[in-house]
Each structure stands twice: as structure tokens, then as C-alpha cells.
Amino acid sequence: MNDLRSKVKARHPDEADAFEVNFECFRPNLVIETGEAYSEDLFAEMRVGTLLLRNVGPTIRCNAVRMNWDKNDRYEDKEPNATLQQYRNVKGLGNLFGMYYQ
After folding, report:
1. Based on the structure, what is the number of domains in the chain?
2. What gap in Å lies between CA 26 and CA 34, rounded to an integer?
3. What is the 8-class DSSP label of residue 98?
4. Contact 8, 80 (CB under 8 A)
5. pLDDT of 36 above 70
6. Phi, psi for residue 49 in degrees, rounded to 5
7. pTM of the entire structure?
């Protein structure tokens, strides 16, 4: 999230406060801080207590991530999807951000 937030702000330096890129817009069930951006791409499985979680594939992001829930409005500049499109896009799939586990 920190990496994406910094890239969005770098794309819009004059509007640094206009885009609130946070976990809430991505609706995660679990957030793990590893210190390295996108390290979840490399996890095959992980344990949370006694629970074993296996990676079953990437999360393809839709336009719902453009929602600013505090203002109940969407960002007109299509952020953060526009920034994800530049470096987390897989042709034929879409913008990837996060992983599905079961």
C-alpha cells in the first residue's frame, strides 16, 4: 500500500492530498506488513496461528478501488487504478493488487 500510495502521489504532485489511497478502498480480509512491496506475490502458502493458507492467485482490481469512502465519491482521475495500470497490469487479466488465499 505504501508503494502504491507514493506512486500515485508522484504522478499527481500538485494534488498530493487529493487522493487518499488506503487499505479501505481495496477491502482486504487480511493485511500483512512484510516491509517489502508486493512480497505476497512470492508466497505459496503461509500460516496464521494453526490455519494454513495457500495462494490461489492474484486479485484483479476493478473500478471499485477508485472510491473515496470518506467523501462517498469516486476519483475522476481513475486513481489508483491508473497508476496500477502502469506497473501491475497483466495483459488479458488486468490490474493486479493482492492475492487470494484459501
Report:
1. 1
2. 18
3. E
4. yes
5. yes
6. 65, -125
7. 0.84
